[in-house]
Amino acid sequence: MSVNKHLFNRAEAFARAGRLDESFKVYNVVLLSEPGNFQALYRIAVVELMRGRIAAGTKLLRKCLRAQPNDPDILFSLGRDNHAQGEDAAPIRHLTKAAKLAPDRADIISALGNTTRATTP
What we know:
This protein has 121 residues and is mainly α. It is built from 7 helices and no strands. Helix 3 (38-50) packs antiparallel against helix 4 and helix 6 (89-101) runs antiparallel to helix 7. The mean pLDDT is 92.
């Protein structure tokens, strides 16, 4: 197992255990050693959102989306984040695209349905 794979697994375990600060630090170590690792950047963004650092998390998700515009995980996370911030059009746009890219993902389909219902008068 590569060092970064080991670190990635460790950061995931920290996040699952609710040890978000430690997860954040380990993902950053991965990103420092592999600056183009957008999976690590995506995970940092999600951890930032989980830590309540919404602006930082949103900014990182947008950066990830610019680099990987067809990644359903990024679209899903950004759509849910935008919805939580009270936006109407962006969440539906992101979740619709995610659903088209990953039609078997029940979490994405559910989020799209919930978001659509919440924003339809």
